[in-house]
Design goal:
Length: about 270
């Protein structure tokens, strides 16, 4: 009799727990939808004192909380205002969702990307990549590596009135974790270059960086030395400049880098 009672009690508690989790997720989803909708319709001139970026940072973290451990469809996430911008085709099922707002200035639209993936056991995880960079990523390419799940993300983001940022960013999926600081471009995980279009050949593993439209390429100095903590290493700045400067400053402005399994190096 006691056994039956205990089993009934445990079953009841389990049902209550599942119900509570479902209610919490519904509330979380409603908050995300409300916030992304507000961000999408945000007009800076009407709300100059509102900290919209803070709202977006909070919302990105809420999206991570909802995505981690759940297998909702892309259609569902998009109904919450989270746009599916890129996805991979391998076992990690890597996807990038984003949302953002128009800041009303020369930066124009500011994008907040969130990465979702699965580990080797099929469990789902998520990471707020906008904590590292704002970018509208639209391509994911798997890099050839013997023992690592490395992915090249390609995207763009408005810089100022005369510049859009071409961005190539390498991330690594390591089971339950996303590694976002691998030094694949000398000492940094990404290239961020003004008015630069990136293309990647998956067969040859060659990354091409070409000037997006006929113009004089902006000085390479800022792109190398203006990237926060990564630019504090002066020797790394010199090496990165040497890696791309010849092609960058040529006519036409174009350079080629090949992934060797560990880093991007000059193509021979």
């Amino acid at each position: 009799m006691k056994t039956v009672f205990l089993l009934t009690l445990l079953l009841s508690l389990s049902i209550i727990g599942v119900g509570q989790k479902n209610n919490d997720q519904k509330k979380l989803a409603a908050q995300i939808k409300k916030n992304t909708g507000f961000a999408r319709s945000f007009v800076y001139a009407e709300n100059p004192d509102y900290n919209i970026d803070s709202l977006c940072k909070v919302t990105a973290n809420k999206a991570v909380k909802l995505m981690a451990g759940n297998n909702y469809s892309s259609v569902y996430y998009q109904s919450l205002g989270l746009k599916l911008s890129a996805e991979g085709k391998d076992k990690t099922a890597i996807k990038i969702y984003n949302f953002g707002y128009d800041c009303g200035g020369t930066r124009r639209f500011i994008t907040h990307p969130v990465v979702q993936w699965k580990n080797e056991y099929g469990k789902t995880f998520a990471y707020n990549l906008s904590s590292k960079i704002n970018c509208d990523f639209f391509e994911i390419h798997q890099l050839k590596s013997q023992s690592r799940n490395l992915y090249l993300l390609i995207g763009v983001e408005a810089g100022d009135g005369n510049c859009y940022q071409g961005i190539a960013y390498v991330i690594e999926i390591k089971g339950d974790y996303l590694i976002v600081n691998n030094p694949v471009f000398v000492n940094r995980p990404y290239l961020n270059l003004c008015n630069r279009e990136f293309e990647f050949d998956t067969k040859t593993q060659v990354l091409t960086g070409l000037l997006g439209h006929p113009s004089v390429p902006p000085p390479l100095k800022y792109a190398v030395e203006g990237q926060g903590d990564y630019s504090k290493d002066k020797m790394a700045n010199i090496k990165l400049t040497a890696l791309i400067a010849e092609g960058y400053n040529s006519e036409p402005s174009i350079f080629y880098l090949k992934f060797n399994g560990h880093q991007f190096v000059k193509e021979n």
